[in-house]
Request: fold
Amino acid sequence: MSTTAVTEVRPRPARRWAGDKRGIWVRWSLRAGLAAGAVFMLTPFLLMALAAVTPDRRLKPGSVSLSGFTLDNFRQAWHDVDWPALYLHTVVVVIVVFAAQVLTSLPAGYALARLRFRNRRLSFWTVMLCLAIPPQVTGIPVFYALSKVNLLDSYTALVLPSVGSAFGIFLFRQFVLSLPQSVFDAARLDRVGPVAMVWRIVLPNVRPALAAFAVFTVVGHWNDLYWPSMLLRSDQVATVPYGIARYAAPESLSTYGTQMAAATLATLPLLIFFLLVQRQLVRGIALTNGGE
Amino acid sequence: MTAALLGPAFVFLVAFVVLPVLAVGALALLNFDPLSQETSFAGLENWHRVLASPELWQATGNTLLYTALTVPVEVGGGLLIALAIRAAGRGAGLWRTAYFAPTAATLAAMSVVWRWLFYPHVGVFDETLGRLVGQDGWLSSTTLALPAVAIVGSWAGIGSCVVMFLAGLSNVPAHLEDAARMDRAGAWHRFWSVTWPAIGPATTFALVITTRDSLRVYDQVRVMTDGGPQQSTSTLSFTAWQRGVSYLDIGGGSVVNTVLLVLVLITVAVQLRLGGRRWEEDGRR
Reply:
């Protein structure tokens, strides 16, 4: 008896055309369309992986025939490029950039969301303008300045230009806006100062935004080819995209098989990372347009 | 006390975004030799030199064409895919993963793969989609190389639009949708009167971010075509990098950067004029 009662009162999920025949037909044709698109999206990964394990003499230019299996391409690519160094440099840059961005963006995001001060609108629109300006516009002046102070080819060069994050400020502002005012009122009654407010009250409350921001920063800076191309002259602190672009440059002697193996080695860590944390990412994007 | 909170972030934003933006125009008036570290005043010489060469105009045209090819595909396609994922019922997470994976993958590395797939005549692309549209040898053609680069750019970028629109669609008020369905409003009418207004902020955000990312295209150009054949794919950010870093022509590179900056500012101004207010107010409950 009780089970039927439960099923009766449970609200039906609002699904389009639920139940009627036309709805089923529409849904399946949508699925077929989505599947066709997904094939296009995923085929490059599949062909990359297949080519990477195909013996080089069997590999035709631009396509794969399923014949033979070898790890020689991976051995060769691993031998040609100092992968542990590339991974290490990239991980260091990504972690330092993320930490520095949180240290600067979280207080700024909180201030823009909750404090009233002079030039508040001006500050907000400065951030929005910075958000719209791509690094490709500022690349040459930054290169000029850093070469003047002899900082090219260093971790400092790779980190400094990315510390101020308009995106981080915007994301944290949106999230702090969505927190209930009572959180802040209670803390203010306890005489918590503004700086302590950020790190003791806001920080524990913005964990979802923090996780989302971490995903953005890691994906963005792991994949970045532009800043390394601009600011590096040698392999001293070469990152993964910089290394792969050099390894697969038209003038290099790497074969297709080893290039595909190298592309796999470059892409895999981040794809795995993405599969593990994609929930956070979706959440973060939801924040940017005020959802949740 | 506000200064202590805002200060650090603004110091870095001003030092590495605002000042460089202002400095681009000034650097274009200087001659700087990165090897000897010597700077001298050049006046308008860099401008004359770069404006006189066809390179700048070709790069501007290529950048605009690339943007015109990718933004509608990414934003329009992203919206359609997000609507389809929502309407298809179960499996949303799976679709999202499939469409977003290219965005998470290192574009520099995947461009190596795409360059290989675009191998003239015998490559997978020419054998399948190329045959479908009756064109081959894309990367060696001066007219098809840029569309090829745009295909890869859209492949890499559409995923973030899908995710942004999925997030926006989750804001559509369910009671309004149900009410519209009760009134037997058609799918088209429901979309325009209920869904479209609700995803306004998501659309603005997707449009601004996608346009910014298209105007700055660099990775695929660098890896797939190196600007060629015959400069047919060299974009503004690629040309600026090539001038500044490969040819050590900082003044000339700054001229190219200034043009890119102007282009970015114009598009942002237009977009914010059209949909900016919703951004600032968003998220307030």
